[in-house]
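Deviation from plan, reported transparently: iron/sulfur cluster complex.
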Amino acid sequence: MVKPIVNITADSGIPLIGSVGFGLIDRGTNVVQVRPTSICPLSCIFCSTDAGPKSLRRAVEYTVELEYLIEGFRKLVEFKNCKHIEAHIDTVGDPLTYLKLPELCQALRETSNVETVSLQTHGFLLTEELVDDLEAAGLTRINLSIDSLNPDKAKMLSGTENYDVDRIVEMAKYITQSKIDLLIAPVWVPGINDDDIERIIQLALEIKAGKHAPPLGIQKMLTHKHGRKPKGVKPMSWKVFYGKLRSLENVYKVKLILSPEDFGIHKCRELPTIFRKFEKVWIEVVGLGLFKREKLGVARGRVLTIVDIDEAPVGSKIRVRVLRVKNNIYMARFEP
Ligand code: SF4
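Because the crystal trials were delayed, the predicted structure below was used instead.
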């Protein structure tokens, strides 16, 4: 079902810090997560954020005005005051749905102290022209998720009838011919694409992914209360997952267990937390949250997600109890 799209602009009065659905996330390292959109064209059966046209739990989608996002990003980078910043565009949807993606990449890259601009995508909307534009804009790396090389299985995993994995592989090869680095990042869905993972490793090595970064970043399937989980699939424990990666490393002589150092990630000044956990706060309701029964609220220059709430008109002031404050991502519950 098509969801309404909320455009987060400078005039909206909605801050860019505090939500996982849009804006900016600072986890106290040199990586700043940039989330310009929550929209996704796919409906992967394992999607931990229940994105895409088949989403049952989302209420709205967000896009962020380019200038507003850049202004917020630059202020944050200035505050962090650290070198080698990586702007990582990693949405709860797919960044390729953002209409001004090349312009965004270029502006991020032109920000002082920014060394790397990377993005995470399933590549459904990639075209040669878009790769050329992203290359010209200075994009450093694409983390491209390919979850199976078998066309039927890939379609099934993506939850999308017109998903064509052969075309995505062609795009992966095209990226390796550009200045953009390529990291292939399959999601390992146990019991469904176990055999495919080896073939994807072989592909990454064959097409010479990873000029500077590692060629592969295999992801463990994660579950979330709002996410989708394929029937009968039990997520691997971290121990089992790393054990399997270790065996594959021995077979293919390639690094698969990655650490922050592989990406030059290091600690760096973090924005102070504005609320205390369990604190009661008055907030102004400014719109709908990403998922049903959620609202967005604003207080002290941050946006909060208010959970388990039905009635709360935009503009009303309500009192909430703050439940989560980590990394300046704020969740709260209505507390009359
Ligand atoms: S896993 Fe990624 S590409 Fe797939 S539906 Fe979720 S957000 Fe979209």
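Residues 66-80 form the longest helix (15 residues). We consider this an acceptable substitute for the interim report.
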